[in-house]
Amino acid sequence: MILDPLIGGIAMGCIYSLIALGYNMLIRAMNLLHFAQGEVMMVGALSGVTLVSALHVPYLVAIPLIMVLCAALSLALDAFAYRPIRRRNVPVINLIIATLGVSIVLSNGAILVWGAEPIRYPTIYGSGALMLGPVRLPPQFLAPLLVGGGLMVALQLFFTRSLVGIAMRAAAQDRETARLMGIDIDRTIQYTFAISGAMGGAAGALLGPIIFASFNMGEVIGIKAFVAATLGGLGSMPGAMVGGIVFGVIETFAALFISSGYKDALGYGVMIAILLVAPSGLFGRRVRA
To answer: For all residues of the chain together, what is the average pLDDT?
Structure first.
């Protein structure tokens, strides 16, 4: 049935969307392409193994703990790696290069802590599929759909309804005017790093039980999430959500009808085709120069 792989594609797309949101938040706030976002997700996935397997924390309790951990990690990266560079008023390309260095440091740090071999999560879900009418839903896709979808809705409400979220949007749109209006720009940047880290951690916690968690998972998944962000439109929050889901569905159907070996290439090919028609992505937001 078409509905079964469609649900699976949407579930994987929700995970890509969470990481893509982290990319786009930092692009909006700082014009910064954070190449270490995938590694923040990787730390979340491996931390989940430790919490669930070693410390026997219930999985649904572990997810918010992982989000807090990855938010703290992202704040630490900003405080000790990015902020000192920003204060020197260097070109943004220097910061982007720094994020590449941070991604390598996080990967190697993960090897020291968890080892180089992939780690399997303990059995969290039952083996039987959930039947929702005619739709067969594998249980491992339930958390990405519910938790991932819920987080995206909550984040959208945060940016549109809360004073902090509105201040963050104002600072991202026009930093100097926002500063004149009394908005603390440094504080909004810290909020941005914290939320992007939390979204990456949630993605890792949701992805870990589906695939093996490993030190190098952030590279592949991070690239896919960046493709999703580009597909939706760099800097666009709705674009990150839609782009992730679209990429997840394309990837799933490519594996189903063509070959699992070509699913990544087809997804990237579709992205290139869409960008040829809409160079700014599906939502067409242009990142300021």
So the answer is: 89
Cβ count near 85 (within 10 Å):
14
Amino acid type, 41: M
Domains defined along the chain, listed by start: 9-117+141-277 (1.10.3470)
Residue with tokens 């630490």: 76
The encoded tokens of residue 278 equal 């809409």
Buried b vs exposed e over 102-116: b needs ≥16 C-beta within 10 Å? bbeebbeebeeebee
Locus of tokens 């560079």: 85
CA-closest candidate to residue 225, choices 212, 209, 241, 213: 241
Distance CA 67, CA 199 (A): 7
Task: Write down the pLDDT at residue 3.
Answer: 77
Choose among 277, 270, 276, 233: nearest CA to 248.
270
Give percent of the chain with pLDDT exceeding 90: 61
Q: Distance (Å, rounded) from C-alpha 25 to C-alpha 230? A: 13
- The DSSP code for 182 is T
Output phi, psi for 131, to 5 deg: -105, 115
pLDDT tens for 43-89 read 999 999 999 999 999 999 999 999 999 999 999 999 999 999 999 98
What single-letter amino acid sits at 262? Y
Residue 102 to residue 36: CA distance in whole angstroms? 6
By the 10 Å C-beta count (0-12 exposed, 13-18 middle, 19+ buried), 27 is classed as buried
> How far apart, in whole angstroms, are the C-alpha atoms of residue 37 and residue 99?
9
